[in-house]
Amino acid sequence: MWSVKWKRKKWSKYLFLVILIGLGTLYIKQEQILAELSSYLKSIAKVEIPPSPQWMFLQSALKSNISFYNSSQATKIQGCTLPKLDPWDPFILPFVSPVPSVTCSTSQLSLLYTRMDKLYLNTSAMQKLGYARSRLQCGYRYIKLLDSDTYKFLDESILAGDSVKLSDQYTSVWARCILSRWSWLDSPFGLPESFLQWSGVELYHNILLYVPRIKNKEKKSKEKYSVVTLIIDGLSQLNLIRSLPLTKSYLDRVGGLLFKGQHKIGHNSYPNVMALLSGETGGIVTGMGWPADWPNRTEIYYLDDHRQPLLPRVYQEHGYVTMFLEDLQLYGAFNREGKIGFRHPPAMVYYRAAFWAMIKEEWGYLRNRLVGKFGAYACLQEQLLHVPQFQALQDFIDTYSEEPTFAHLHLTEYLHNDLNMAKLYDKELRDMLKHLVTTGAVNNTFFMILGDHGFQRAEDPFILTDQGRVENNMPAFYLLPPTNFREKKREMHANLVKNAKKLTSFYDINQMLRDILAMGVDKTAKDLFSKFEGHGASLFSDLADRTCEEAEIPEDYCSCTDGVLKLSPTSMEPIAVAILSDTNHFVRSLGLCQKLELHHVKEATAKLTEKKVSVNMQIEIKPHNALFEAAFSFSLKHRQILNSKLTRLDWYSETSQCVPDVYQYLKPYCIC
């Protein structure tokens, strides 16, 4: 009896201690808990908030305070003087490093691999492991895309020999090898696959890309040129020179052209890739270029329902074989789960299922070796990710070398978070191009290496330098024309050479791509795209010496040096306060954000013309020393804001965790 009472007393003490610790934790964490509770309640009771600030305070401040510019300095700008920058400027060298060393965390040997439309057993790897063929059971499952956000693995097929021809209905397989004697553990009533991997029964597994051999009646003619648009996310013109020296040196020798005045037309990937592949402005709002009703949409926005067809689809309708590959599908230019995507595949060879499965399967651990702070990875199991990507492109071009094609690739994982990771592409990219040129596979192809914009992750101080900001505006654009294009189309080629030294944009490339298709189907681009929105002028034409306004490049992203004046940071403080007031008003109804207060204006510039003043300024705020870039244009005649944009430059995900995902577009402006 006494023992029971003593035990009760003892457990009562423990219970009291647990309760005390719990109450203490609640007290210490009360702000965090209340913030999370508030965030949850806000996500349930959704508040409608416009896609961007309304700029009422800024409008008022500009009307009453325009002493920051001298109208006598206004000039009539003619053409564009491109900035003269050194890729190896000593001021940016502290941010430039050699080729990064990356070792994938998975040590498995590649027992299976693909080439073109075949799956092969790697007998060299098998022998290295010390196994006879009879001791291995290898299989593969096709990955089928059901809709924009859903895929499924089909039933497993066993690899009977050392190779097998793969179906032309899919583009990837889940492939694996297990020890034959333990294969009974893999029966439908056996152990889960994760246990087989952990126990060593499963020796290899990965997602493998391949190129299906699709029957196509169209044959390549002398006028039917193929196209490759290879986008390396965040690659500027100068970073191409720094990071891809082998590739550039080789392309220079075989007649390639570096376009030194290429500019972006939007902040991030979507508006720039949309300008390239569609020719539309993309409906640029919220700095993202996505639909105007984006913040309050409840259904997925299907691009092929609401926008004009992308060029791969248009080319496909005229007999071209098309390919579409984006690697970082979690944050793809055209895919966000449940929000934006394609109702129908945008190309015949489409890799959404493969790269979506890489993110979803095994809790995302197929991808390894984090690049930067979040979201991007360098490896797929035992392999650097660019190796199968370049192999897929090479296989596609080789497979369809006798047919007209359009291949679009957007590679994001490496450079999105790390300025120097593009160096990993260089050797394999040069080797692939050398193979394709030497074999003649790209004799009839316009091969383009592009950035969608320059590097813009502000946790890296590089972007805060003067050169970093200019590089952000000027993405890479390197063009390798068809082998005989100079002889066959002398005037067009001569214009390409001249235009490589002028101001250009994705709109101009889009117009050139329209002309390429028009030549192939013996129509004019005007007739072929009569119902399409379009901007810019074809690079096949002799471009005038245009200003950014004439080239339809927003002033926010214009790096032409004409008419640019430095402003006193102190004189711009009233304007900065007004911008922050508009921002505070913008997020106020969310009820989760701290008030933003001005710490100081770091720097400011203005471009003065006869009609307007365009201002760009960096604002450091309290709390957390967050950094914003504000850009706006103001009509001198009507005293009205023409456009305005605020961009968060520092890493904001850590300061906006209280903001529900339904308000994703508010996170840059909110400090919890």
Topology:
Blueprint: H1 2-28, H2 30-44, H3 56-64, E1 112-115, E2 118-121, H4 123-129, E3 136-147, E4 150-153, E5 157-158, E6 163-165, E7 172-179, H5 193-199, E8 202-209, E9 226-232, H6 237-243, H7 245-253, E10 257-258, E11 261-263, H8 269-277, E12 301-302, H9 303-306, H10 311-317, E13 321-326, E14 340-341, E15 349-350, H11 352-360, E16 367-371, E17 376-380, E18 383-384, H12 386-399, E19 405-411, H13 426-438, E20 445-450, H14 466-473, E21 477-480, H15 485-488, H16 490-499, E22 503-505, H17 506-521, H18 525-528, E23 564-567, H19 573-587, E24 597-608, E25 612-622, E26 627-635, E27 640-648
Parallel strand pairs: 9-19, 9-20, 11-22, 12-14, 13-15, 13-19
Antiparallel strand pairs: 1-2, 2-6, 3-4, 3-5, 3-7, 7-8, 10-21, 16-17, 17-18, 20-21, 23-24, 24-25, 25-26, 26-27
Helix pairs in contact: 3-19, 7-13, 8-17, 12-13
Short description:
This protein is an alpha+beta fold and 672 residues long.
Question: What does the model show?
Answer:
Strand 24 and strand 25 (612-622) form a beta hairpin. This protein has 672 residues and is α+β, with helices and mostly antiparallel strands. It has 19 helices and 27 strands. The strands form seven sheets. It has a seven-stranded mixed beta sheet with strand order 10-21-20-9-19-13-15, with helices on both faces. Strands 3, 4, 5, 7 and 8 form a five-stranded antiparallel beta sheet that branches. A five-stranded antiparallel beta sheet has the order 23-24-25-26-27.
